[in-house]
Amino acid sequence: MIDREPGTGVRAQPRLTVVSGPSGVGKSTVVAQVRKLDPDIFFSVSCTTRAQRPGEVDGQHYHFVDRQRFQRMIEQDDFLEYAEYAGNFYGTPRQPVLDALAAGRPAILEIELQGARQVRAAMPESQLVMLVPPSWETLVGRLTGRGTENPDVVAHRLAVAEKELDAQGEFDALVVNTDVRQAAAELLTLTTGRPS
């Protein structure tokens, strides 16, 4: 569906929305719900140098590339943002996002804070949305309730989450993830400019 400026019949400028927020806040779940609500929105697929895991599909979950190719892409300025985590590189290819916007499709990126800052620097017109928990206690419960990581890892994630939440002032909008469907509806409205 092509966006129209309300009451004008003129096509609205599609926007790039960058969704960020601390680990455990539910970014992937909310973005997956937005995908169900509006399949016309472009969702960027990141490149990574990490190994493909069982069940992952190249081009759907990630574009899996070797380090040499990733380095060439950095040198050619092919990324809107990129970073290294745990010895692997991750990056958002620039051209597919630009192509989607040029075709009139709003686009969503789901990335961490440093990547959001890089995108804002590369595309100042992009919209930054932070997904936040209803409370700090809720986030602590989500991260400790998983029971899959040792306490040191959880403590590190909570320290990082605190710094990320402190950056709320850099964002254009906040969406509180109390309810996934409600949060997805709010994010959809922000992304498309249409009431959900």
Could you explain how this protein is built, in words?
One of its GO terms (molecular function) is ATP binding. ATP binds at residues 21-28. Essential for recycling GMP and indirectly, cGMP. It catalyses: GMP + ATP = GDP + ADP. It is found in: Cytoplasm. It is globular and about 40 Å long. The chain contains seven helices and nine strands. It has 196 residues and is an alpha/beta fold. Residues 1-11 have low confidence and may be disordered. It has one domain: 3-Layer(aba) Sandwich (Rossmann fold). The longest helix is centred in the C-terminal third of the chain and has 16 residues, at 151-166. The protein starts with 15 loop residues before the first strand and ends with a helix. The strands form two sheets. Strands 2-7-1-8-9 form a five-stranded parallel sheet, with helices on both faces. The chain has a four-stranded mixed sheet with strand order 4-3-6-5. Helix 1 (27-37) crosses helix 7 and helix 5 packs antiparallel against helix 6 (151-166).
